[in-house]
Amino acid sequence: MLRRSIDDIKQVTVMEKLIKGFELFRKVTYPTKQRLFKKLASAQAPHTLVITCADSRVVPEYFTSSEPGQLFVVRNVGNIVPPYAQFVGGVSAAIEYAVVALGVKDIVICGHSDCGAMKATLDPKSVESMNAVSAWLRHAEIARHVLEENYKETDVRSRLRALTEENVIAQLDHLRTHPSVAARLAAGKIAIHGWIYDIETADIRLLDPETRRFVSLMPDIDDEGGEDSEGGGKGGNGAVSKSATRKAAESAKSAALGRVGSARSVAYAGGDL
Ligand SMILES: [Zn+2]
Q1: pTM for this structure?
Q2: Ligand 1 mean position to 150 CA, how many Å?
Q3: What is the Å distance from ligand 1's center to 57 Cα?
Q4: Is 254's pLDDT higher than 90?
Q5: Average pLDDT across the chain, whole number
């Protein structure tokens, strides 16, 4: 009974915090963005579909400084996209809606550091008692097989990093099986991107489609794991120098920006969004 009361009090406190947060938003943020909310009241035109993890530390609107109405975000355990033929559910419906109805021109699959879903994929026994989680994570098993057969890493941190990267690559492959995406990819009307967000350093690593390697957007960050992974992963050829890393980051960035195109940049400039 006492336990129950403590839990109740805790719950009230959390709810109070949320309500106070809303009141602050209503009082401070909302008045400065009324034009935006008026514009969004009857329509949305997001430019990008972001598929990322449900992890509470990964908030794409926050780390891309985006406003409401700009990103169509789908979050699930492990930023997974089930192959179209195997499983048509909420993720498939959201992809189809974003692509066909909203006409997004870019899709980002964003994994992240310290991902619980990836840890569970490395150690399936840890989620054995959770039937739904275990079943869902089977869509990431392909990444574990790639890891087991192609990587030399043995320490947990490097294995987790490599699995997180291979999972993003695998889910991009699954994304291509969705008819609405495949049709637009073939016509060059849509671009797909792989990202990994690092919670601690606030870095993003972009997938370079040419090399199938992830390249840091902030190469000056002292991230020992990055160079270990690039050097020791599949096909690695030793340590990568800082200047080479910076150069690779620039080329990955311009490859990503090149796909956006000037027409759309103009379309989104100057408005409230
Ligand atoms: Zn996660």
Answers
A1: 0.83
A2: 23
A3: 9
A4: no
A5: 86
Instruction: Take residue 204 and report the two structure tokens written for it.
Output: 């993003």
Tell me the CA–centroid distance for residue 77 and ligand 1, in Å: 6
CA–centroid distance, 119 to ligand 1, in Å, is 9
Dist CA 33 CA 27 (whole Å): 11
Q: What is the pLDDT of residue 104?
A: 98
Using the mean position of ligand 1's atoms as its centre, give its distance from the Cα of residue 115 in Å: 4
CA of 116 to the centre of ligand 1 (A): 5
Output the CA angle 100-106-111, nearest 5 degrees.
115
Higher pLDDT, 235 or 125: 125
> Would you place residue 260 in the very low, low, confident or very high pLDDT band (cuts 50, 70, 90)?
very low
CA distance 122 to 140: 10
CATH topology of domain 44-259: Beta-carbonic Anhydrase; Chain A (3.40.1050)
